[in-house]
Amino acid sequence: MEEKITVKEAKKQYKANNGRVTAENVNGFVVLNEINKVYGNRVQAVFNFNLAVEKNEFIVLVGPSGCGKSTTLRMIAGLEEITDGRLYIDNVLANYLESKDRDIAMVFQSYALYPNMSVYDNIGFGLQVRGLAKDEIKQRVFKAAEILDLGSYLDRKPRELSGGQMQRVALGRAIVRDAKLFLMDEPLSNLDAKLRVQMRSEIVKLHRSIGATTIYVTHDQTEAMTMADRIVIMNKGLVQQIGSPIEVYNNPANVFVATFIGSPPMNVFGADISGGRISDGEQSITLPKGVLQRYQSHIAQRRAFFEQLALKARLTEEKQLLGDISALVRQLKRLPPEQAKTDYISIVNRVSAVAQSKGFIHFGQEQAQSYLNDAETGNISVILSNLAEIEKLIKNTDLAVSGLLKEVDSSNMRAAKKDAAVVKKQSVFSKIKRLFSKKPAEETLEEENLRKINEYLANYQSEEVATHALVGIRPEDVYFEGALGDNASSAISTRAELVELLGSEFCMHVSMFGASIIVKRGVREVVSAGSPVRLQIDMDKLKIFDPVSGKTV
Amino acid sequence: MKIKKLLTSAVCIAACLAVTASAGVLSACKKPSRELVNDIVFDEFGDPIFTDESGKGIRLKIQSVIGSPDNAYLDMVNTAFNDYYRSSGLQADITSVENGIFYQQLANTINTDPKNAPDVIIFHSERLTYFASQKILVPMDETFELLGENNTFDKSNYLENVIAECHDKDGTLYGVPLDVHSGVWYVRKDILEKNGLTMPSTKAEFEAVCKALMERKAAGTLWTRDMTSVKTQIENATSEQEKHNIRERAWKQVGAETAASFFPVEMSAADNIESGWLPQTAVLQNGGKLANADGTPAWNTSSGLKNTLEMFEGWQDKYIGANRDNQTLFANLGNGNAVFGCEGPWWMEQRLNEYDNYLGEGALAILSLSGLYADDPQSPAANAVYGVGHVFSIANTAANSSATRRVAAALYAKFMTENAVKYTAGGHLPACKTVLESEEYKTSVAYNRYLKYMADPADYVMLGNTQYFSPVYEQLKTAYIWTLSKNKSGTVEEHIRGCFEEAMAQIRGSDDL
Amino acid sequence: MNEQKLTTVGEYAYKQSRTRDFLKRYGMALVFIAPHLIFFLAFCIYPLIYGIIMSLFKYNIADPSQNEWRGFGNFITILFRADNIYHKEFWYAMGNTALFAVVVVPLSIIIPLFMAICINAKPKGYKLFRSLIYLPSVLPVSASGVIFTALFGFLFGYINQWFGVSIDWLNSNPMLAWLVILLLCLWGGWGGNFIILNAGLKNVDKSLYEAAAVDGCTGMRRALAVTLPAIKQQMVLCIFNTIIGYFGLYGQIYVLTNAGPITDSTNHATMSIMWYIQNLINSGNYSVYGMVSAMGLILGIIIGIITAIQLIITRERKSGTKRSNEFAEYLKARGSANE
User: Fold this and answer.
1) Nearest alpha carbon to residue A215 among A126, A107, A143
2) Quick one: B343 and B361 in the same domain?
3) Which residue, among B505, B482, B465, B508, has the nearest Cα to B305 in the 3D structure?
4) Domain assignment of residue B66, yes or no
5) Looking at the domain assignment, is residue B20 inside a domain?
6) Are residues B108 and B121 in the same domain?
7) CA nearest to C322 within chain A
8) Which of C210, C221, C320 is the closest to A112 by Cβ?
């Protein structure tokens, strides 16, 4: 908690710092602290985004479309307002800085080249606006042109350029500025596959050579894997996992990450593991020791968690509190001071108790104590403002619960798929029909939360979940019989249903434990489609996922 | 290949169009054959038969420039014609066409749309000479002669000064005149009398009356009466005595402050109708001519025009109010803010009815322009008034190449002009002597109420046989408008010269086409 | 015996498919284009050709026997014969029209542009304002003319009454009369340009603005560097339409002043070229039609020339080699410095 000062004092300090608020104790070059984005139509795009980017780091934000990665980037760029949370760039609180004052350079998906200006002017425009001398601009533009090999195109207009050239101009416009931070919003998605691969390496080289800090947004996991120092994987507005490419590949935090990263993706299938083994007819493998116990204890934990949550999320007490608070606020001035004081103290105590028992309300002991101290002063305006604060805190409970649930939802591939299907089904016809039909009564946030919690609880309590886990294995971790040592499972015989040759490797679709599984192997081991094969799985690489939340066990 | 084909066909179509267009132009260059075909058959009495073998008669199309309200009077005469000739199978229908498009439409229909072309046209006689030169009319004399022994048409039956304008410049008669008329001054006689003044009849008297009124205004002893204020009371009054009392009570004695907007004369530069009468009459009353024999304007040398326009110029802000335009005339007369207003004669009946009803008989009087602008009131020309008239002519259409039809048209013109008594109620003096001398005319309400106060029809002088109507007439109007306009520079004399030169330039341009 | 044309089945099939293809491709197009084409030929091309031919004659609509071949005589009169009334008045009216266009065209671009930029910022209730701004353009000139006559009338006009003045707007000072005509033109004419410019602004790539924001370019500078170039096409269209439109200025003058006030013997002070031509046609002089056709053609050619000049000015220029040459020198200089 920052120390409070008077408005006058704040104004003085703000002016003294040239309209900047510096924060020395921030650990990172770009720090996003609890960033939230809620659009005007109450759609929340980004939830509690936390990230610290080190200097010279290449960070890639990756996720399916609509996951909030571009919104996050645009918030960093200052093109979107940050609803809640704090953003620091180079130790300066950047929430309220204009884009141009954040010292950033940005590359847009559509390149956003000024169509009326030549390549030279496009690259130099930012410098021109900042009032640099003409010679200085020329030197810088020529240097950028040299790096990007744009020398012979300097007089051309953007429409006379190919996609790759436009891309390079967009990059040139960014690097010419010598900005501290590079932001790139899917810069390669408009290029063809070959050019994309080429530009990918060029951008990384450029990043290294100019020693910049880059935040790069893409939906292509290959780009993320090949370019990033660290990957931030997002889904439905929530960060799923942050880590180096190899980390997220080898140790995905949940089913979503497991299936999003890697090509072809990890094979994930549901299987009965109750006997410590997975079997389907003749196919059968034994799980390593402890896996089953770990899984079962995990499920038990989750069940306990949701049972708790269900209790907490019933907000009758909070509602009662809200009613009491508004009644008190209305009457405060008319009540005798003693009476007012006792009422206020009782409310603070009740809130403190609720906060401790449920944990959704961020109302610590210290704060409670300071609020109680305020009662002694008898200053009505202070009491009123305190009550308003408390009211706000309580009202945020619903949001806090739903944020928690969202976190569970977002990692769950099954839930994601179900949502997508719902969206898809809305044909124009059904939309029109809905317009004319009576609107169903809106579910309040509290009701929705309770419903969801109960659904989760039912899932975790079900027989099926107790025995059926999600099992994941990467395509390259399945071998032909005899190629593996100790960690190999028993051999499974099946048939190569489809064989896709990729050059140095090939993919083979086989049926295993009732699911279709892709196996990737070197081309020297290639088999013909339809031929029977015997396979072994590297049991060390086998992943078990919670089938409800999708989290790795 | 395909594009080439399309281009070729486009060029072909364009070429075809060009050929048709030029054929159209060139064929139009040839004079259409409208030779008279003498197909008249006479009955036993020597009258032409208008029905063919099948018994189908002739239905004449009449295109008239006379619009509302006068066309109603003309229709009455037309009905009389239809009744008279119904048994002979001769009928006529009048269509009114607005002045602005009348002449262009006429030429176009006669040459390109024979089905809709009119047989007889009624228009302003000052344009006749030009029309005759453009061969869209057929000669009138010759047509009447087709009737042979039964021809009763006699030129001398029409006022010489009026029918003079119905000839082309070589003296061939092309039309039968219907009427002659000019603008008149509408005078609030009740105000004059209340202030002890009489109706003026000369320039000097007119100015003297105006001067006297303004002096009374300055002295605060001016009597005026507002007609609009008594309207409802009069309508609700039950007896003549009560009406009389109301009218007497309406008199107010006012001064310069209470009647700030009182100015005796209503005139303005707003292209009002008086610009078409006053300058022309001023020329004529001082012995001048409007047009020379060759058709060019002759008014530029008239001292009468110069004197009169200078007089008007002097009246501005003295006898003529500053804020006047063509909408204010009858309003200011009605509320007693003016005494004299010049307007067309077609308002006479309506206005007299109104004033007689609300302010009593004789409150409004008609003053003709006769003698008002002559420097020498005793000179023979002093009573001249510029007159315009309507004329009947036969259109040079294909249908009219039939002598029977042409004769029918001529008879229509003769009948309409000789039976125009009802039409005169609209404020038009008849051009036909038969009408002028008829008992019906002399005893008609219109004659006794207002027509007799207009100038003697024999004193009217027309524009003359000029084929340059527009330059001669319009530029003289311009001279007048400029005199009263608010942003003029230079003297009246310079300006008359300027207008004359402009008229001559227009004439030269037109001759030079 | 009849000689019969011989063919193979393959050839026949090929021919058939060719015919079918042709009909498919052009038949439908022709069917759709035909109604317009017929009207275009009948009411545009035919009168144009007829007019061109008429302009070569002394053409009399009443008495064809007076028609005389003039060659380019009419054109020479209008263009060169300074003593001729038609020359004098044509160029007087032309000058009036051109001067008026010089004043009105920039205004009728800038005002709608300003409004479009305001509306494009989507202030509260912008949809209402958008309709209100366009509303005057829905009225025909005759109706809006009546409104303006009521506003600017001398004795009973609202403007004079509201402000307690007594100004004869339409019939005293020519500059006042022109001012009222200008106001009517702007008020009645800004809707069209507004809609076009508004649509143009709507389609400007948002990322351009964002790129400009990151580049540190805001406010006026952004409008000049990003917005205006982005709606250049719409601007060109508006300028074209407006210039051509105001060279045909007629209705506003006809309704408000009918070319008045008369300032001296010769001219109507607010006479536009269209009004002059129309007035000649209605003047009752039947022989003037060849001259009028020539005037119309000269007007058309003048508008054509203005349009051509505009096209040349607004043409996309080929990119030069200035910067790339400088770059080559820069490389050379660096190369030599390194050695």
Assistant:
1) A107
2) yes
3) B482
4) yes
5) no
6) yes
7) A155
8) C210
CA distance A152 to A136: 20
Shared-domain flag, residues B302 and B289: yes
Ranges A175-189, A442-456, B62-76, B133-147: which has the least confidence: A442-456
Half-sphere exposure of B406 (CA within 13 A, CB side): 29
Average pLDDT over chain A, rounded to an integer: 83
Does residue C256 belong to any structural domain of this protein?
A: yes
Task: Give the range of the structural domain holding residue C131, as residue numbers without chain letter.
Answer: 84-283
Q: With an 8 Å CB cutoff and a minimum of 3 pairs, decide whether chains A and B touch.
A: no
B407 has a pLDDT exceeding 60: yes
Query: CA of B400, closest CA in chain C: separation in Å?
Result: 16
What pLDDT does B310 receive? Answer: 92
Identity of residue A509? H
If asked whether residues B319 and B367 sit together in one domain, one would say: yes
Asked if residues A406 and A448 have their Cβ atoms less than 8 Å apart, the reply is: no
Which range is least confidently modeled, A42-46, A91-95, A167-171?
A42-46
Highest mean pLDDT among A288-302, A380-394, B361-375, C325-339: B361-375
What pLDDT sits at residue A211?
A: 85
Is C31 inside a domain boundary? Answer: no
Q: Which residue has the tokens 């022994």?
A: B149
What proportion of chain C, given as a percentage, has pLDDT over 90? 51
Mean pLDDT over all residues of chain C? 89
Task: Return the half-sphere exposure (C-beta side, CA atoms, 13 A cut-off) of residue A400.
Answer: 16
Q: Is C337 exposed, middle or buried (0-12, 13-18, 19+ CB in 10 A)?
A: exposed
Provide the number of structural domains found in chain C: 1
Residue C33 belongs to a domain: no
Identity of residue A320: Q
Q: Which two tokens stand for residue B358?
A: 């609300």
Does C106 reside within a domain?
yes
Complex ipTM: 0.84
Beta bridge mates, A517: A510
Residue B100, domain CATH: 3.40.190.10
Question: pLDDT at residue B28 above 70?
Answer: no
Cβ distance B111 to C282 less than 8 Å, yes or no, reads: no
Residue C298 structure tokens: 């000269």
Q: Give the ranges where A19-162 is alpha helix by DSSP (H).
A: 69-77, 119-129, 134-148
Do B128 and B91 fall within a single domain? yes
Domain boundary residue, one of B425, B443, B461: B461
- Residue with token string 């008849």: B430
Q: How many helices (H) and strands (E) does chain B have?
A: 20, 16
DSSP assigned state of C198: H
Q: How many CA atoms lie within 13 A of B497 on its CB side?
A: 5
Q: Quote the minimal CA–CA distance from C239 to chain A in Å.
A: 19
Residue B323 falls inside a structural domain: yes
The b/e string for C218-244 (b: 16+ C-beta within 10 A; e otherwise) is eeeebeebbbeebbeebbeebbeebbe
Q: Over range B468-485, report the average pLDDT.
A: 89
Domain count, chain B: 2
Most C CBs within 10 Å, among A150, A152, A169, A215, to test the C interface:
A152
Q: Three-state DSSP class for B197?
A: coil
Return the pLDDT at A423.
35
A103: left (phi over 0), alpha (psi -120 to 50) or beta: left
Range of the domain at B205: 184-386+468-511
Give the gap in angstroms from C-alpha C265 to the nearest C-alpha of chain B: 5
Q: Do B243 and B289 fall into the same domain?
A: yes
User: Smallest Cα–Cα separation from A89: which of A77, A81, A80, A79?
Assistant: A77
Tell whether B156 is covered by a domain: yes
pLDDT(C233) > 50: yes
What's the CATH code of the domain at C197?
Answer: 1.10.3720.10
Q: Which has more confidence, B217 or B13? A: B217
Query: pLDDT value at position C14?
Result: 93
